[in-house]
Design goal:
Helix content: 40-55%
Number of domains: 5
Largest sheet: 5 strands, mixed
Number of helices: 26
Bound molecules: manganese (II) ion
Mean pLDDT: 79
CATH topology of the largest domain: Hypothetical protein af1432
Radius of gyration: 46 Å
CATH class of the largest domain: Mainly Alpha
């Protein structure tokens, strides 16, 4: 176990300004609080935080990180509270310790590939300060190094799996290659011990039979570089058992076929040198196609830069070669941790490609307030996301600002559609609540529930929005469909036809519509009229305008054109010369209360005040003209229109015309609108003097036995 002064010396070695007192106090405090606690290995528990702190000194971390490592298990495993830590060590350390403690509490129940990726993002987002994650990785590294002391094989396996799926990729993500490689190898030896042993044996065999291949190849590469007057640092190694094993898995090749098990790294002074040496290597040795990658011109997202190539090397072996500068090398090995070295002036981050890293480093140094620090050091790319858990422990990533409804739709669209409420961390919350990182969300559903249009105001995910809109559309559609059905039924009724399935099928065919619902919706939305549907089925049926004129020999039917015999319209107060005509919908009669509707270019159309047509002009009061009859001028006859229902029996039509004639009316037009076995519905136009005259005729008709109903037409 590292002694107190050793730890301080190691930190002082790379950071002479480190807060010695803070580290000393943390060391003593942690030792006191962990007291006699023991690890599974039997070692005092306190050895663990000291080792973790020791690992961090390899990466030259600042004193706050070292202190955090010393205290990282203290809140979770001892009587000490976060407040104690804050009082004794200040806000910065308390915040870091809190961050590591939070991370420690979160585990994925099922590590599936999809979940693992989300979980990694979640841990990054939760590690509001990148140092939290670095401490966590060192913690995991030490736990993996001592994994063999845990007795329960299932527990060992779970930890190893989590390391492989979550923490090794995270170490790679923030660029700490060393930790990534060691974590992978430790996890590999736990998860696939047999495979690892056989790969190691195979490597040993090759070494015995081939001699020191790595050394020979390094010599040759060295001569090559010196030959052109460059100096470089060359290292060579056999690949780790895990990377060999993975290659065998991915490429499905056997160990024998897997020839490039050696990798060499050449570290040079400048970028130009890298490309120059690359040229030399490709000239001297045959290049293996498809393996060349230039991460100098196009760095990886974590800031990694290098040139990778594979060639058939000096010993006829396939070898992998990486070329990079010293600065690139430090970034590659230490990643974010390299920051603390640059701070000491040990190196310079070069090139624009390191922007993300440089920004992170700048922020770490320049943030003024804790809030600002917190705000900025969340890794930028995850700032727009929140990660929440289902009750089963599934992790769901949502855009920032998302609420329970978004969560519900992310789980399943049916869950979203039937969502009635939500519990967040066990408490019922309004559906418009915004979710926070790490919230556990339970959606309450009811089969009777339907999406509410109001949800649209607060959901942020496209999926939720799309489902809510679709549902609103469906609702509206159902209403239009019902309305359309009514309209079509009435249209057929009006024409005296039954709305049969056959008729509807015909209409669908005519309009090329797939189903009845579509037809009704079109009518409901006004894109088709009921009458159009009717005419599609019965194109031969006559419309009101061209009705069959029934010639009744008994009636005095006017042969001349409809309006030809009518006198000039006897209406007062009109501008002379203005065209005026009585509307054909309601046939106003002198004595009716009337109103005029102006039709630009056509004059004024006169309607009775109760004509149904007037509704069409209700939005245009400007077009309404006040009118009155000029009784003194009314010397002629006007046309009145009646709707009649007459019994279908011999003599009925005869008595109709007789009654009208007897009352000095003159039938000018007559048409049937409906014929059934028992009744005729018809419209009869009668020339009368005025409204009183027509009223007399109506009264007389109502008294006639074979006439069932008489009404004035109203538009
Ligand atoms: Mn720990």
């Amino acid at each position: 176990m590292m002694r107190q002064f050793e730890l301080v010396e190691r930190v002082k070695a790379y950071d002479p300004t480190a807060d010695e007192d803070l580290i000393n106090r943390a060391y003593v405090y942690a030792m006191k609080m962990h007291g006699s606690q023991k690890r599974a290995s039997g070692d005092p528990y306190f050895s663990h935080p000291i080792e973790v702190a020791g690992i961090l000194t390899n990466y030259k971390l600042d004193s706050a990180s070292i202190v955090t490592a010393l205290l990282h298990d203290i809140v979770e495993d001892t009587l000490a509270t976060l407040d104690d830590v804050r009082k004794l060590f200040g806000d910065e350390v308390a915040r870091l310790v809190d961050g590591v403690t939070k991370l420690a509490k979160i585990h994925l129940q099922n590590i599936e590939t999809k979940q693992a990726e989300n979980f990694r993002k979640f841990l990054l987002a939760m590690s509001e300060d990148i140092r939290v994650l670095v401490v966590k990785l060192a913690d995991r590294l030490h736990n993996m190094r001592t994994l063999q002391h845990i007795a329960d094989p299932a527990k060992r396996r779970t930890i190893a799996l989590e390391t492989m799926e979550i923490y090794a990729p995270l170490a790679e993500r923030i660029g700490i290659q060393e930790i990534k490689t060691e974590l992978e190898d430790l996890a590999f030896s736990q998860l696939h011990p047999d495979a690892r042993v056989s790969i190691l044996n195979r490597l040993k065999y090759l070494e015995l039979h081939g001699g020191d291949l790595v050394g020979k190849i390094m010599d040759e590469l060295d001569q090559l570089i010196r030959g052109v007057g460059l100096t470089g640092y060359i290292s060579g190694r056999e690949k780790t058992p895990y990377s060999i094993w993975r290659k065998m898995q991915i490429k499905e090749v056997s160990f024998e076929q897997l020839s490039d098990i050696m990798a060499f790294r050449i570290i040079l002074e400048t970028v130009e040198d890298c490309y120059r040496v690359l040229g030399l290597i490709h000239t001297r040795y045959p290049m293996v196609p498809g393996r060349f990658k230039d991460y100098i011109s196009t760095p990886k997202r974590n800031g990694y830069r290098s040139i990778h190539t594979a060639v058939i090397g000096p010993q006829r072996q396939r070898i992998e070669i990486q070329l990079r500068t010293h600065a690139m090398h430090e970034i590659a090995e230490l990643g974010v941790a390299a920051h603390w070295q640059y701070k000491q002036g040990l190196g310079v981050v070069e090139g624009k490609q390191y922007n993300w890293l440089r920004e992170l480093l700048d922020i770490l140094e320049s943030a003024q307030s804790p809030q600002e620090f917190l705000e900025h050091t969340k890794l930028e790319m995850f700032q727009d996301q929140v990660f929440c858990f289902s009750p089963k422990g599934d992790l769901i990533a949502l855009p920032r600002g998302a609420g329970p409804v978004d969560f519900a739709y992310a789980v399943h669209s049916e869950v979203g559609d039937t969502c009635v409420g939500a519990k967040v961390n066990g408490r019922i919350v309004p559906l418009r609540t915004r979710l926070q990182n790490g919230d556990q969300v339970e959606i309450m559903t009811s089969k009777a529930q339907r999406p509410s249009p109001e949800w649209e105001a607060f959901v942020v995910t496209g999926k939720a929005r799309a489902h809510i809109r679709r549902w609103i559309r469906q609702e509206a559609r159902a209403e239009f469909s019902k309305l359309g059905q009514d309209i079509v039924e009435k249209a057929f009724q009006k024409e005296g036809y039954e709305l049969t399935k056959k008729a509807l099928a015909l209409a669908l065919e005519k309009f090329a519509l797939p189903n009845l619902d579509d037809l009704y919706v079109r009518v409901g939305e006004g894109r088709l009229s009921g009458r159009q549907v009717f005419l599609a089925v019965y194109p031969g049926a006559r419309t009101e305008k061209d009705d069959n004129i029934v010639n009744l020999s008994q009636a005095r039917v006017k042969q001349a054109g409809e309006n030809a015999a009518l006198p000039a319209v006897p209406i007062k107060g009109l501008t002379p010369g203005l065209a005026v005509h009585l509307s054909e919908c309601c046939h106003p009669l002198p004595g009716d209360r009337i109103v005029g509707i102006a039709h630009p270019g056509k004059g004024i159309e006169v309607h009775t005040i109760d004509c149904e047509k007037l509704v069409d002009f209700s939005e245009e009061p400007d077009r309404w003209v006040d009118l009155a009859w000029d009784f003194e001028r009314n010397t002629g006859m006007s046309l009145g229109r009646l709707n009649l229902t007459v019994a279908n029996e011999p003599g009925a039509l005869g008595s109709l015309s007789t009654v009208i004639a007897r009352n000095h009316g003159n039938i000018s037009n007559l048409k049937f609108t409906k014929r059934s076995a028992d009744f005729f519905d018809m419209i009869v136009d009668i020339e009368v003097a005025d409204v009183k005259h027509l009223a007399n005729i109506v009264a007389a008709l109502r008294a006639t036995p074979s006439i069932n109903a008489v009404d004035r037409a109203r538009g």
